TrEMBL record, chains B, C:
GO biological process per UniProt: 2-oxoglutarate metabolic process
Pfam families according to UniProt: Pyr_redox_2, Pyr_redox_dim
GO MF term list: dihydrolipoyl dehydrogenase (NADH) activity; flavin adenine dinucleotide binding
Highest taxon of the lineage: Archaea
UniProt-recorded name of the protein: Pyruvate dehydrogenase E3 component
Keyword annotations from UniProtKB, A to Z: Disulfide bond, FAD, Flavoprotein, NAD, Oxidoreductase, Pyruvate, Redox-active center
Cross-referenced InterPro entries: Class-I_Pyr_Nuc-Dis_Oxidored, FAD/NAD-bd_sf, FAD/NAD-binding_dom, FAD/NAD-linked_Rdtase_dimer_sf, Pyr_nuc-diS_OxRdtase, Pyr_nucl-diS_OxRdtase_dimer, Pyr_OxRdtase_I_AS
Lineage: Archaea, Methanobacteriati, Methanobacteriota, Stenosarchaea group, Methanomicrobia
Residue ranges of every copy of the FAD/NAD(P)-binding domain listed in the record: 11-327
Amino acid sequence: APKAEAQKVPVLATPATRMLAKQLGVNIDSVKGTGPMGRITDEDVRSAAQKPAAKPAEAPV
Amino acid sequence: MVVGDIEVGTDVLVVGAGPAGYTCAISAARQGLDVTLVNKSELGGVCLHKGCIPVKTLINVYRLAEDIKIASTMGLKAEGASVDRRKAYEWKDTVVGKLEAGIRELCRGSGVQMMEGSCSFLSSSRAVVSGPSGIQHVIFKRAVIAAGGRHKPLPGIPFDGSLVINPDEALDMPDEGTAILGGGYAAITIAALMASQNKKFTIIHKKEHILTFLDEEMLRPVMRRFQEKGVAVHAASSWTVKRMGDRVRVELDIEDKKETLEAKKLVPDNGMIANTDGLGLENTAVKTRKDGFIITGENYRTDDPSIYAIGDVCGMHGNASTAYREGESLADILAGKTGLPDTIVTPLTMSTDPEIASAGYTETKAREAGIDVIVGRFPFTANGKAVSIGKTTGFVKVVAEKSSHRILGMHAVGYEAFDILQEGVLAIEMGARLEDVVLTLHPHPTLCEAVREACADALGESTNIRENK
Amino acid sequence: MVVGDIEVGTDVLVVGAGPAGYTCAISAARQGLDVTLVNKSELGGVCLHKGCIPVKTLINVYRLAEDIKIASTMGLKAEGASVDRRKAYEWKDTVVGKLEAGIRELCRGSGVQMMEGSCSFLSSSRAVVSGPSGIQHVIFKRAVIAAGGRHKPLPGIPFDGSLVINPDEALDMPDEGTAILGGGYAAITIAALMASQNKKFTIIHKKEHILTFLDEEMLRPVMRRFQEKGVAVHAASSWTVKRMGDRVRVELDIEDKKETLEAKKLVPDNGMIANTDGLGLENTAVKTRKDGFIITGENYRTDDPSIYAIGDVCGMHGNASTAYREGESLADILAGKTGLPDTIVTPLTMSTDPEIASAGYTETKAREAGIDVIVGRFPFTANGKAVSIGKTTGFVKVVAEKSSHRILGMHAVGYEAFDILQEGVLAIEMGARLEDVVLTLHPHPTLCEAVREACADALGESTNIRENK
Ligand SMILES: Cc1cc2nc3c(=O)[nH]c(=O)nc-3n(C[C@H](O)[C@H](O)[C@H](O)COP(=O)(O)OP(=O)(O)OC[C@H]3O[C@@H](n4cnc5c(N)ncnc54)[C@H](O)[C@@H]3O)c2cc1C
Ligand SMILES: Cc1cc2nc3c(=O)[nH]c(=O)nc-3n(C[C@H](O)[C@H](O)[C@H](O)COP(=O)(O)OP(=O)(O)OC[C@H]3O[C@@H](n4cnc5c(N)ncnc54)[C@H](O)[C@@H]3O)c2cc1C
């Protein structure tokens, strides 16, 4: 359910945080935000990146 | 096939120097890659030569002529304000030339190798370029297709440049008695340019209103303007088009009755096709969709591991800012970095009179998606700067999630709407709430105060309009 | 003292109907409070009658006349573009009248009681209003002083309306041979208006440059414009002013030598004083600073528990957007809510040619504060829309914290700088980083693309200018 919701109302993370997620290979839609109103912070992204579940981004050639 | 002697080797071959291609080439070269940019026509693509820039340049001149007439009530004296069409088009060419020289400088300065000619792939590592200086072979490690798109003719009615005109070529249309068929982006842009030149013409569109991706109210000021300018606008449920000697006959179904229209010229806006013909994609593993656009996956990759594609040739957004971004993003990827993240919104801008700019959810789309939204509006008639400069047509509209007050859409129709939208675009990307905009100072007197007041209206607390809707 | 029979009782008495006062009155009345608004002159204050709006309105007309001349290279034909001064000032009055009527409607519509006249406090719960319809007593529970400020004469040289002119009254100055003394906000605004009217005049300022709250480079396009217009600009370390019959003599110390200037009119910008004379503050516990401005603490409270003060009468920022905000904030407080939080920045705007707009840390201020910053710039010569419309003067400058990339200042000088600044203002308030703006799409072609490119330049990655500084 949160996934469908996330598609309707866009993820609550600033562009810079979304960039960080991309760099760390974190799927931002699956990160739980700890900021106000569920905002995803850089720290949330970093700790998600540490979890083994996080699939790294496709490595560029 | 006759091939020349010269064989060029390059790391990255970029095909097409529109916004997508040249941005990618420059940015990749700056990051130290060996880049060759091939382009078959002028540098800058549709955006610089047929679209964004020429339209803005020409409309600005004609708008000035109009402003002068209106400003006679403001104390401005100027006799016989009018536009010398030939000179205006020369000025347009000057502007384009200046910007093209700038792009050329940027390419040179960042070490991009430039080749003029039409490029065709021979394999996944080899292409041939046929240009004014002969035929050259290029051996590449990776290639970027940024060949753009063009307008598609109506089935069985090819563009002929005199009777049936491609919207891409419609900038130069001097004649009266034209019919524009379609209510999409290109149709309306061309219509706006023609209206600014006080031409008499007809717009025929399907569906309930033109530019259906916008809330209908956003169009009202533009439709009113068309009306004032004597442009005939017909909504039809369907039509058939026939060439009749030096005329085009359009038969319309309008509310169960038929009407027939004859036009001296027809500009059909029938959607886009990709510039993939002659590209030799059959010699690569690149796949296209049924409609001809190139299929890409993660990181702009095609099905050919050494070939990427960006911009209009992929048929996604069809605007220059997206093309720029994809160019930058792909350059990073080619240089071994991660690309740029997705944006939440792609702002859309229409060079109409007045301008329309729109980003994110419209009220209609939000309701269709089942999002519970609140909406705020603020008219430019109540904005001090707009009154000061006599540009009171239009309004700003904001759409926000009801529970969180998060801004999901910002829309503006009015003078300089493109530029005043940007605060809204940033607000959406930052996940700002209505309160964030309302609590941010807006200098006075500015048009962007209307953005703030629209947000305040959504919160039900604007002091600047009497009735909160 | 003769007093009338009528005695009015009110919950909230607001003194002064400038931006601060009328906003507070309307917003408080909308929240259900019983509000009486007293004003001694026209509704709307300095902003509407002498400042922001008239300046913008007049400059716009003169700018149009200039645009017409420039646009002859763009194919625009118009003979003898000029401005009919009398008509332009009539148009200004029309604009002001329209906006004043709007404010009046808003006041009425929200139930604000309006009284015309000069207000003086008799105690902390009683005031007297002397107006055209006689003298009235008002008994109030709470009062808001929003009486604004005005310019201060030079010591010993009072304004006389003919030889020595108050900057607040300088809008109507028809004469040549004026000297403007001072390099502050009002001086430069008046100078810009006079320059737009092609008057020959002189600016004399102290310190190293005018508008010293800005980085010097922001002024260069404006100074160049003054030069083109034949405005003489003198920097002096000190000066003395003497009236000499129908002339004013100004003796200047310029780099150790003396120079003497004679002017037919002098407009000295010697800072502001509060409009507290005649307010009867001595009958209340309200305290003022040595310079006459009212002292307020938390929640706009004066030292008198029943009296609040907002806007220019407190002498803080001296701009209309702050006055509006304080009005709204105080209305909330009076209605029992908390007021609005402080903003991080107060955007400053200068109606010069081209416009200057500035928010947050300048490079100089950031370095003075010991903040390690990075800076980015982008010139309008490289912006597609600016080139299209022939408005390539100026640039955008961004100041960001080096470690975090957080945007701390945004500054723009150029066409429509006020409106394109706003994205930067929101960026600062939202705590946005350079990346946030760079990764947000900016529609093309827009002036605000220059904001993005300035941010990209600070990050060292703009594809649109060759040299990153
Ligand atoms: C009338 C009109 C108005 C528009 N107004 C706007 C607007 O205001 N704002 C906006 O954002 N967008 C606007 N657009 C859309 C915008 O112009 C396009 O989205 C943009 O140009 C796409 O960029 P691109 O780089 O993908 O492709 P293009 O700009 O189409 O460039 C492709 C380039 O590739 C070259 N090429 C193609 N095939 C080959 C080959 N085989 N070999 C070598 N070179 C090749 C072409 O010659 C061309 O130079 C407008 C479009 C039109 C038609
Ligand atoms: C030339 C010039 C240009 C300017 N340009 C800009 C600009 O572009 N942008 C900007 O933001 N700001 C600008 N300003 C500043 C702006 O005008 C002021 O900051 C703003 O008007 C302050 O609002 P206020 O409500 O505090 O006071 P005011 O606007 O001064 O209003 C005070 C009101 O109180 C009334 N009053 C005073 N005493 C009494 C009394 N005893 N009884 C009854 N009524 C009384 C006055 O008549 C007046 O109507 C400019 C100022 C000048 C002079």
